[in-house]
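Retro notes (design track)

What went well: tokenization of the new backbones is finally stable.
What didn't: we kept losing track of which sequence belonged to which structure.
Fix going forward: every design gets posted as structure first, then sequence, in one message. First example under the new rule, 113 residues:
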């Protein structure tokens, strides 16, 4: 089985708007959808992941604040990238948010490690 890093992406402005305007009932419904999806894919989840916070960029000049569209992550396992992709259809809870998408990246094995 191969492992894949899943990045839950969203336009920052759209995400902030949704968080400010969603009701507690909508938030609860969204969490229930996530829990159901995670339960349905339990055998493939290596790490269910979590939401991500502020980003720091570190380069040879030092550290600085930066922004990106990554809102969270998971790690899944599957036979192939196509098989991993099939877990994230149009009904995935994250994709219900306006301007959201998912990026699936194979985690390459390092020889000897």
């Amino acid at each position: 089985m191969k492992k894949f890093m899943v990045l839950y992406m969203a336009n920052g402005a759209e995400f902030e708007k949704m968080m400010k305007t969603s009701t507690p009932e909508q938030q609860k419904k969204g969490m229930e959808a996530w829990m159901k999806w995670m339960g349905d894919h339990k055998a493939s989840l290596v790490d269910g992941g979590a939401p991500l916070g502020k980003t720091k960029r570190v380069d040879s000049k030092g550290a600085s604040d930066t922004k990106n569209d990554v809102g969270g992550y998971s790690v899944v396992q599957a036979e192939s990238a196509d098989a991993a992709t099939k877990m994230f259809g149009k009904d995935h809870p994250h994709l219900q948010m306006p301007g959201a998408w998912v990026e699936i990246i194979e985690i390459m094995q390092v020889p000897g490690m």
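Added context from the reviewer: The chain has a mean pLDDT of 92.
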